[in-house]
Design goal:
With 469 residues, the chain is of the alpha/beta class. Helix content is 40%, strand content 20%. It has 2 domains: 263 residues, Aldehyde Dehydrogenase, Chain A, domain 1 (3-Layer(aba) Sandwich); 182 residues, Aldehyde Dehydrogenase, Chain A, domain 2 (3-Layer(aba) Sandwich). Helix 15 links the parallel strand 16 and strand 17. InterPro entries: Ald_DH/histidinol_DH (IPR016161), Ald_DH_C (IPR016163), Ald_DH_CS_CYS (IPR016160), Ald_DH_CS_GLU (IPR029510), Ald_DH_N (IPR016162), Aldehyde_DH_dom (IPR015590), LUC3-like (IPR044086). Belongs to the aldehyde dehydrogenase family.
Length: 469
């Protein structure tokens, strides 16, 4: 078990190139993150390639036992991991935030270890017999983002290891210490070399994307970076799973009870202070309940405290970096100029220390306003009034993204009918953004391709092999 101080000392750079890491809530110094390069990437690849055959030689059950022990190690250091995550990423300890993210890491490992992927008999008719097996790919590269630097990394690392692969991970340069800390704790248990990590900037990511040693790359991040990875990896015909940008729509039907759905609507949009790929980012509400839904959301916003993450009272935090703060600020200002009515928020303290942007709800906004059609990735929700359901569905489908969406209704059957018409990888009914290790997750259109989670996720990090006898 590590304390926060011992964990930080273990991952903070003391020699070589380093980057100063500041707390996004206070501006205070956290530590120094190592800045590694292509040489360190090559060394990690060499160790992983050497370690992978022995790891793959273990049975699924044996690898599952190891993954459960890794989960135990994460649990033993969970409070230290959560504190580091809160300080570096900004998310509060409490609420659906740092402690929940760390807890999800160990839960994901155990669920992945317990999944069954038996040999599938595809034909046995007395004349032909064929089985479908799934074999390890070999080496998998994982490039993870700064919004959920531990949970998203685990969601990719856990199935890759379970299927007998070795992994080299690259955490975001914005949350390097969190990524290094998670791997450090995991490597207390894993065989040496099976899981490597390289902390670097774009040059490391570019080298990873073009390296022929990787049989697959898993990336979560922007659509623009995803396109560059596709281009960079094409020469090696590298397999890819890409979870890219989203601008998730929610459609509220006229039969809802606004008070009953307000809490879940709010957290669908503002979990992780809106810094979630599959957050609710544009809300279409029928005119019959529009004002009541707006009022109910304002009430929830007013009762939801934002502040420094280590304060146990807070459940919303700062934006992780100033670049993202500027994006949110620009889009909210565009909403104001375009005639949007700010119900709450929209008035940041531009001279304050920290990257706090107030919880913001904007009503009566044009559906083509930049705050609606661009991904804000922060605590600002545009609320669009509609009267015609077909028009609302057309607006929901009108952008070149399709990660998630939601439909809100007292009639589940009606909601499912609407959901079937929405172009998104996942459509939630009366909730938004929830993920589960057993439920496949992935996007369509510009939100990427490939599936994570569940048995489909295991298959995505393996090579299908048919044995035909």
């Amino acid at each position: 078990m590590k304390t926060y101080r011992t964990l930080l000392e273990h991952v903070t750079s003391t020699t070589g190139p380093a980057r100063t890491v500041l707390d996004p809530a206070t501006g205070g110094l956290i530590g120094s993150a190592p800045q590694q390069g292509v040489a360190e990437l090559e060394a990690a690849i060499e160790r992983a390639v050497a370690a992978q055959p022995a790891w793959a030689a273990l049975s699924h059950e044996e690898r599952g036992v190891v993954l459960c022990r890794v989960a135990d190690a994460i649990d033993a250091s969970s409070e230290a991991l959560a504190e580091l995550l809160s300080r570096e990423q900004g998310k509060p300890l409490n609420g659906p935030n740092a402690r929940v993210e760390v807890g999800a890491c160990s839960a994901w490992l155990r669920a992945t270890a317990a999944m069954s992927l038996p040999v599938e008999v595809v034909i046995d008719d007395g004349e032909s017999y064929a089985e479908l097996h799934y074999r390890p790919i070999g080496l998998i590269g994982v490039i993870s983002p700064w919004n959920f630097p531990m949970m998203i990394a685990i969601g990719q690392i856990a199935p890759a290891l379970r299927m007998g692969n070795a992994v080299v991970a690259k955490p975001s340069e914005y949350t390097t210490l969190s990524g290094l800390a998670l791997v450090s704790v995991m490597n207390e248990v894993l065989p040496a070399g099976v899981l490597g990590v390289v902390a670097g900037a774009g040059d490391v990511g570019a080298a990873l994307s073009t390296h022929p040693a990787f049989g697959k790359i898993m990336f979560t991040g922007s659509t623009g970076t995803g396109r560059r990875i596709i281009e960079a990896s094409a020469g090696n015909i590298t397999r890819l799973t890409l979870e890219l940008g989203g601008n998730d729509a929610g459609i509220v039907l006229p039969d809802v009870d606004p008070q009953a759905i307000a809490h879940d609507l709010f957290w669908g949009a503002f979990i992780n202070t809106g810094q979630t790929c599959a957050a609710l980012k544009r809300l279409y509400v029928h005119a019959d309940v529009y004002d009541a839904v707006c009022d109910a959301l304002v009430a929830v916003a007013a009762a939801t405290p934002m502040g420094i993450g280590l304060d146990e009272a807070n459940v919303l935090g700062p934006l992780q970096n100033r670049m993202q703060w500027n994006v949110v600020d620009r889009l909210v200002e565009a909403a104001k100029v375009g005639g949007g009515r700010v119900l709450v928020g929209g008035d940041p303290d531009r001279g304050a220390v920290g990257n706090f942007y107030p919880t913001t709800l904007v009503a009566d906004i044009d559906p083509q306003n930049p705050l609606v059609i661009e991904e804000q990735f922060g605590p600002a929700l545009p609320i669009v009034r509609y009267t015609d359901l077909d028009e609302a569905i057309a607006l929901a489908n009108g952008l070149d993204v399709g990660l998630g969406a939601s439909v809100w209704s007292a009639d589940t059957s009606a909601a499912r009918s609407v959901a079937a018409r929405i172009q998104a990888g996942t459509v939630w009914i009366n909730s938004h953004g929830g993920v589960h290790p057993m439920i496949p997750f992935g996007g369509v259109k510009g939100s990427g391709y490939g599936l994570a989670c569940g048995v489909a996720g295991l298959k995505s990090v393996a090579l299908p092999q048919v044995i035909n006898s």
